[in-house]
Design goal:
By secondary structure, the chain is of the alpha/beta class. It folds into 4 domains: 22-215, P-loop containing nucleotide triphosphate hydrolases (Rossmann fold); 223-417, P-loop containing nucleotide triphosphate hydrolases (Rossmann fold, 3-Layer(aba) Sandwich), CATH 3.40.50.300; 420-523, Arc Repressor Mutant, subunit A, CATH 1.10.10.10; 544-612, HRDC domain (DNA polymerase, domain 1). The chain contains 27 helices and 17 strands. Helix 5 links the parallel strand 3 and strand 4 (128-131). Bound molecules: adenosine-5'-diphosphate (ADP) and zinc ion. Zinc ion (ZN) is lined by residues 392-394, 407-408, 411, 413-414.
Length: 617
Amino acid sequence: MNDLAHPPPPLSNAPASPAGDPATALLRRVFGHDSFRGQQAEIVTHVSGGGDALVLMPTGGGKSLCYQIPSLLRPGVGVVVSPLIALMADQVAAMRQAGVRAAYLNSSLDATQARQVEQAVTRGELDLLYVAPERLATSRCLDLLDRTRVALFAIDEAHCVSQWGHDFRPEYLQLSVLHERFPDVPRVALTATADPQTRLEIVERLALEGARTFVSSFDRPNIRYAIVDKADARGQLLRFIRGEHAGESGIVYCLSRRKVDETAQWLLGQGVRALPYHAGLDATTRTGHQERFQREDGIVVVATIAFGMGIDKPDVRFVAHLDLPKSIEGYYQETGRAGRDGLPADAWMAYGLSDVVQQRRMIDESEASDTFKRVSRAKLDALLGLCETAGCRRVRLLAYFGEQGEACGNCDNCLEPPETWDATEPVRKALSAIYRTGQRFGTAYLINVLRGKTDERTTRWGHDRLGVFGIGADIDDTTWRGVFRQVVALGFADVDHESHGALRLTEASRPVLRGETRVELRRQVRATRHGSSSAHAVSPDLSPEDNERFERLKAWRLAEARRQGVPPYVIFHDRTLAAIAAAAPGSLAGLAGIPGIGERKLERYGLDLLDVIGHET
Ligand code: ADP
Ligand code: ZN
């Protein structure tokens, strides 16, 4: 809320405790956190000292503090540029809950409201100002800032300057003006996009050559990765949701709008509170669904990738893919929306041959340049490698971003190592079957030939007289489907879209056919469950009694959030409520020690909280 009529008083910069540096003191007092994470402290020191910075940190890594604290430490207002207009109100509300004097300027304000904010800026009454990029570039706004002491510029979602990325915002290109017009104001650009290409573009387009770059590990240790063989995808999804995430918030990604609608409808029929989201819905419905997702507990949004950047809900407990994304970058970005609060979360995907075929077709049939198609194919292949690997998913994922790691113990392959088998002979048989039948048939038919099933077509084409007919009778259908999927994923064959999914051999098949290469494949897994859910629960340590308190606290939070018109997590995160429930402190001093309770929240909610946990029922 831009509630300028009731601004919180300015926070003093005096450290809460005599010991420690001012940044840590603010961290404790305002945000209620004990210590900085990872590179936060270094970044805060660098930016507070007036340095420019490029911050690459995964989603949930804690980028916000990297500009919020320097804004509070430096004189003047910190100006935060963000394309996420829909989120600004919530971000500002969260800051104000912590006692930070924050406001925003974007197109959702009318002229009077905007003028009020501008006046507050001029009077030096704000610590943080969130601004939409197109707004910032106007001469009105730049003039306003000319007359104002600016603590720093934070350019959030900085990858939006990249013309190659799917989040490109032309308005971001105008942000280079900041450097020219305010050469003495430090700038910090932040993004969760990991690839080096984008990094270079950010530096170049935002004139950040002199900035110090801070690259964090892109690992998200709390996210458990699992990729299952697609069978009855919907049923698998439902079992996954019911088994592991009943009543929790999640996102299900599908490729097409139609599939989004159908899946949402179906889930709803199964008792899952699902809402569709895609660009084909009218704006009101879309916003409404996004809002409910942000503000209510336990909504599952079924969406195309149009549902993306505007989400910073911290307690998304799972992201499921019913269709394959285009690249590892896409997969990483989408799955990254789970578990921003650091609590356990799942990234789950069902994957099958049809996905490979569909994605390859989309590339082949697109109007893009040959170079673009080549890059797209390579990106898809890298993702297929991730899907087919029998090794640790996380190791593979991080390796793609240039990081090395060890088997994580928190992915499907680590938890239940898949069997691999020497599939050289079956693969050769599959490839011969493709070749001998004239490279004109799809998987289902080829499996019939290999298994020696006679039908009208085998007879008509004389395929029952081929040497390959029946040479694979010892292998069942499911295993054959897995073999064909992997043959295509590994690039030994490709799919001809013109002729109904016929498989054709590629150059890469030659060494296999000649017996020069050994092929090791994953065995198909039928039981697709992993891990025990109890070890993976959000609050594993809560006793039934604690849990009862936790539920009461959540109910109180929801009521409070409704009353104030803000999302519940703006008031307290789950993690904080769980800690309160477990510690059950009997005094304000006891509450103050709990992570996530800063000075202002203690003042405002402390007695209520004590009251809520005091009533044992
Ligand atoms: P990002 O913008 O990088 O996705 P956020 O800034 O939203 O991440 O932070 C993610 C979560 O981590 C938030 O819930 C935030 O409160 C928490 N967080 C960030 N820094 C710290 C810290 N030093 N100690 C404890 N929690 C932190
Ligand atoms: Zn692993």
